[in-house]
Amino acid sequence: MARRQRGSSPTLSDVARHAGVSLATASRAINGSSTRTVGEDLAERVREAARELGYAPDANAQAMARGATQTIGVVVHDLTDPYFAAIADGMATAAREGRLFMTLATTGNNIDALSDVVSSLDSMRVRAIILVGARWKDDDLADTLGAAAGRYINRGGRLVTIGMELPGMDGVIVDNAQGSAQLAKHLVARGYRRPLVLVGPVRHSTAAARSSAFVDRMAELGVEVDESHQISSDITRGGGEVAMRLALESGLDFDVVVAMSDVMALGALHEARRSGVRIPEEVGLTGFGDITSLRDVQPGLTTVRVPTDQLATLALDLALNGPGDGTGSQVVSVTPVVRDSTPPRT
Question: What are the domain boundaries of the chain?
C-alpha cells in the first residue's frame, strides 16, 4: 500500500486506496450523489478509512455531488424589527451548531417579493429555505410563491415557514391566540376594564390573530371592547405612536393600552409621554414578543414572551429532518411576562 508523505493532509485518493475502492466510489460514499448511491456496508468501509486517516470532507465537493450546498437561506420581512432580528440570530446559532452556513435575505416588507427571493436562493443551491413572518389575509401568496417553491422543492430543497401557514409546507406556528387570552385574563385580574387595543393592520395575519383572541377573551370575562377602542395602524413603532395620538385626540376613555407588538407599545409609550400621560400611574401598557431591547425600558413592559430561539431550532430541524409535506408543523406556546407597566387597579 502506498504511503502518504509524513505531514501531508490525507486526500480522497488516500481514502479510496485505504478502503480498497475506486475514487468514484469513495467520492459517492463521502460526498453523496444525486444520481448514484453506494451500499451501506461499502459506504461504512469508506467512512472508516476516512476516520482512520483523519480525512476531512470538502464542503464544496459535497455540494457539487449532491446538487445542494451546506447553506440554509433565511428570509425575513424586516431585519430592522427586533423580533425578526432575534429569530435571524437564533437561526444563525442553530445553523452554526449544525455546522451549516446561513444566507440572510429580506423582502423589505414586500410579501410579493418572496417568490423572487426564493428563486434567487434556489439558484444558489441552498439546502433549505426558511420563511419568517406573517402573511396578509386573503393574499394570493400560495399562488405567487407556488411556482418558485415548486421548482425548488422538486430539486430536493426543503422549505419551512415560521409564523405563516402555507398549504403543503411544514411550519412552526406561534400560538398567538393563547398568549392574548392569557394576557386578557391577567389584565382583568388586575382590575383593568377599559382597554384600548392597537390592533395593527387589519389584514396582517399575526396581528389579527392576537387582537381578535384578546377581544374575544375579554368578552368572555365580562369586558366588551367597543370598536372605537380598536385602532388599526402599522405594526411598527411609528404605528404605535400614530394610534396612541389618535386615541388621545379623540378623547377616548381607557385604562390600559394593549399593543400587538412590543415596538408598537414602545411607540405608544413615547406618544403618551409626549402628551403628558403617565404610564403606568394613569394608564397601563402591554406589548407582545418580549424583544431583548425591553430590558432598557422604564417602566418594565408587561408583554407576551415568544421564544425566538425555540422557533429557530424547531424550524431548522423541520427543514433538515421533517416530512416536508405539511404534516410536520409544530405549535409553540407563548407566556405572559408581567412587569411594572400593569400595576393593580383599585
Answer: 12-65, 71-173+309-332, 176-307
